[in-house]
């Protein structure tokens, strides 16, 4: 079949299968989301989170092909071997062939509905293929497992005392042991001091309840994966007892006890004390400038970074700034990476600076006062006090001198590396040359790691947006859509989120939903945002910075502090300093606003925020912009659906008769059920109204069909009946004129069955009835002795013939008698091949002797509902009238 042209591998698997999971999904749209969840949970459970995003995207496409396009059930099988995971998706429609004769490039455009799953397999999978059997077609793909990092033993050189890293007088190392389930099993005294929790409060709890893991879709290792590795080092946060996140540097080592039970020992120090735990370099790392060109056995990259180099971008950048600072004997160092358009630089690593405040901050590249005009060339500033704003990153840090050099790859600016000192005049061109030499050696490795991170982020973003679109498309409820918007952004994209909505162009933005990753912060955040003016509804796409929340939070915290110190008015009840400071910390970082634009109109704003002095990275803002476009359309669809439902229900309620009148000497009860979700009125209708003194008209009818078209004829019939009856026309004349009015509707006309009558209560306790039954199910009369009989004769229905000759039948209801009128939705209630029918209705009515009209109607409806398990597919109306027996003294 030309497999060689495709690069498709269908060789028999030789690896030993170590784990297996399987599930079958029905041929319905929601199965796609269920299949994604199944694959995600399976791979996460196996500890392979690094391939989850690719597996979920491929599974989503292949299951969609099966359950949506092929219309069959999909069987999903996950197989794990030592070095790979294979996922098989089989459907039961083998006649649908895969175009294996074509090359991957001719499978079709990415915009086509068909063929995209195979294109993704070719792009993402290590191997893939198609197998056929007599009953199934199976598409499979294989994802290779990356090699796990292992621990290494290394030692560093002796260095002068004044070059050793700074640490507090008492360095505390928290020792935390985690069992195989991820729960804390040991917690030492230093951990209690660092984080504020006594051991008895945390033992037995999952570490994930305390860890603030830096999560970006598609990048980095998750906490669960990190705990499963043989050894791991890196930075994350621990939420202290006071609610604040404490940045820590951690070293994890996985061990087993004498019984073979595995656990993970975690050593943690404050992040600025990372040198206590960070694995030292393998050997002395001489300055890059001191390595002669062409020296045998000396790799300039290893000479600067050390060997082995970190295998992740953040680790590589952090190692780079630390080595640069040490090489030039600086007090601080920083590294910035260029955005794709090279117009801005983004802070990605620093040492000796408040890294939490600077991380992901962006500065422009173009020349000008206060800008990074020197980013494309090496630059030395001997005294920043003389040239304020020359290096915006260092404003307010106390640094006086700085040297910066560019990172370039093939002549293209990819970043900037800088070293700063607290004393002026520290650096000269000689130091700039040394730093440039080092930067030239690491630029390619940094760019390669950056591109790898962007690719992982792209794949994670694709998976994130697929699931977001699926969730947003699954509801038309406005409030639920708002909640989903916020829950998808927090904490994946931001620490907190607020959604503003705009009802119409003349309305002000309204704060509709607020969410924070810490539930205890939501009320304070909502109160703060309610007190400040909302952002302007600007339709310009993209994220824009909004400083009002952070400014307001800082002012509120300042006022609260002054009141507490007795320098201002007495604090109000419930507005203590703790609440104000916590709120200020929660919103003190960067806040951005993205417009929600749907159908060329701004319908709201999505506001995302970070905690104190944190910034968004550009990739996250681009992902948030994609999400905002999808969310805006989903929110506008929910609004339109709600408006149309409100209009529909209002119009339907106008077609229902007003409250039924009291008829002297006669009990009346009506039960009405319209078929279809959201319908209050359908093709069936009823009415009871006074005609003149002592006379009442009643009607029950059924228009052909259901829904709005039938409801329109319902309104015509009900209003025409009242008008004609009150004009003095008898029953036959009323129906003949209604028949003419229906036929005048032309193409919109529908035939109508109608039972119309006049009710005349008598002084002796009986009631005289005059009835015309035009094609409608005959009314049934229940006598006191339990006998049931039809109470009229059938005549032609309305809306079919021009000339009708109808007649009226007169009879009397004696005390204790019941007259039951129903529509065919009652008698034609079905369960398989069985139908309730006229006889079944009569049998139920015979059991109603002595019941009131309300009890009779309720028993009939209960019997109809119990006759079949499915929801009724036709409208139903029940009208019961009973002449009560005289009271016995």
From TrEMBL:
It comes from the Bacteria. Residues 175-205 form the PAS domain. InterPro entries: Bact_Sigma-Reg (IPR052016), GAF (IPR003018), GAF-like_dom_sf (IPR029016), HATPase_C_sf (IPR036890), HATPase_dom (IPR003594), PAS (IPR000014), PAS-like_dom_sf (IPR035965), PAS_fold (IPR013767). PROSITE patterns: PAS. Keywords: Hydrolase. PANTHER family: STAGE II SPORULATION PROTEIN E (PTHR43156:SF2), STAGE II SPORULATION PROTEIN E-RELATED (PTHR43156). This is SpoIIE family protein phosphatase. It comes from Streptomyces luteolus.
